[in-house]
Amino acid sequence: RLVQWVLAANERALAWDETEKGRFKDSYFDPVVIPTIEHIPWQQKNIPIPPGILEDVVKIIKAKIQSGVYEPSSSSYRSRIFCVIKKDGKSLRI
Q1: pLDDT digit string (tens) for 26-82?
Q2: How far apart are alpha carbons 78 and 84 in whole angstroms?
Q3: Are 94 and 61 in contact (CB under 8 A)?
Q4: DSSP string, 25-85
């Protein structure tokens, strides 16, 4: 019963998909400043996405942008992305 009560009292703290995830308010924490040294930013080419799954990958990326998981960036860096098939044999993970 205690576990049931705790879960019911805090159900808004649980996220079952990315659209339910929240963010901390900017006023809670100062922006993080990461010290760096002068260097040339790296820009790696992406691993080619097979045409057969391209549409699914685009849907996943758009959903992550819409839910706020992915944000616009003006960074000079570009890191590779790649897809793997989840254990269910159908779904993709980026």
Answers
A1: 788 888 888 989 998 888 888 899 999 999 999 999 998 888 888 888 888 877 888
A2: 20
A3: yes
A4: -GGGSPPP-------PPPBPPPPPPPHHHHHHHHHHHHHHHHHTSS-----S-B-----EE
Q: Which residue has the tokens 């959903």?
A: 63
- Amino acid 46 reads N
Distance spanning both ends of the chain, measured CA to CA: 38
Cβ burial of 80 (10 Å; 0-12, 13-18, 19+) is: exposed
Domain ranges of the chain: 2-93
How far is residue 81's CA from residue 70's CA, in Å, rounded to a whole number?
13
